[in-house]
Each structure stands twice: as structure tokens, then as C-alpha cells.
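re the bet — no i am not wrong, look at it urself. input seq straight from the record:
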Amino acid sequence: MAIDPTRLPRTESAIHDADWALDDLSGQVHERVAFTGVDLTEAASTGASFTECVFTQCRFNAGAHVRTAMVNCVFVGCSFFEVRLEDCKLVGSVFEDCTFGLFTAVGGDWSFVSLAGADLRKSSITGVRMREADLSGVKAAHATLAGVDLAGASFRGADLSGADLRGSELSALDPLTVTLKGAVIDTAGAVQIAGALGLSVR
């Protein structure tokens, strides 16, 4: 489902079809910018900041970003193949029709992020804070979602079959509304899922 235009951030400037491939974006600050068709392949950043920006059909492939903030941004039809995000802040950002093949995120704060319907197969997300994230309908079979704080997250219709969920906070996960066959969990996760089923672990 396409994003309601009225819910998009109100941008104040625009960058179209720019070639930022291989660029170092460290320290750059962008606020309320509409990026369209920008090539960020193999771009890198440390400490960059993007606030209330809209990225449409942008390519982030093979990029590496450390302690970069992309807060309350919207990504539409963007590619994140082989991207690595480390200790990045994406609070409140929305991803629509984006691709994430071999995507890696380590640490950082992704609270309130919307990844509804995203294909996260072959992706690895570890040690990330994803409180109240919208993961409804995600395809995360055999993905790694380990050590992730998923308190209050929405999982309805998610496919987590074969996923590595060890060390993650799963209290919001309703096992009756997701696919969990073959998923790997630890003892704490087993207790949380059992509790969701109304079982008592002794």
C-alpha cells in the first residue's frame, strides 16, 4: 500500500538524480530535503544527520554508515543491498517498497520505525532498539533478529520461520498471528512466548 501523501514530511528543498556514489557524507546535515533518484552506492558516513527527509528511488547499496541519524524520514522504493548501519538512529522512519538483501544493522535506535511488509530475508539485525516498531507482514525467514529490543512491536502476519531470535525481547509477539516454525529462541524467549499462549513455565 502506497504511503498517504498527507503523511509525508513537508520538505523544503530537493535533490534530483545526484551522483553521490563513493562519497563521504560524514558530518553532513540535511533537514526536510526530498531526495529523488540519488545514487549513494558505496557512500559512507560517520555522524551525518538527515531529519524529516524523503528518499524516493535512491540507491544506498554497499554503503556503510556509522552513528548517522535518519530521523522521521521516509524511504520509498529505495535499495539497501549489502548496506551496513552501525549505531545509527532511525527513530520514526518509514520504509515502503524497499529492498534489503544482505542488509546488516548493528546497534542503534530504530524505535517506532515502520518496516511493514518488508522482505528482510538474508538480513541481520543485532543489538538494535526497535521498541514499538511496525514489523507486521515482514518476510524474515532465516533472518537474524538477535539481541533486539522489540518491546511493543507489531508482528501480525510476520514470517519469522527459521529466524534467529535469541536474546531478543519478544513479549509483544503473539505466536498465533505469526509464522515461527524452526525459529531459534533462548530460554527467556521461550518463557515469553509460552506466556503469550497462556502457559505457565515451571
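see?? Residues 18 and 38 are 5 Å apart (CA to CA). told u. also Helices lie at 187-196. so pay up
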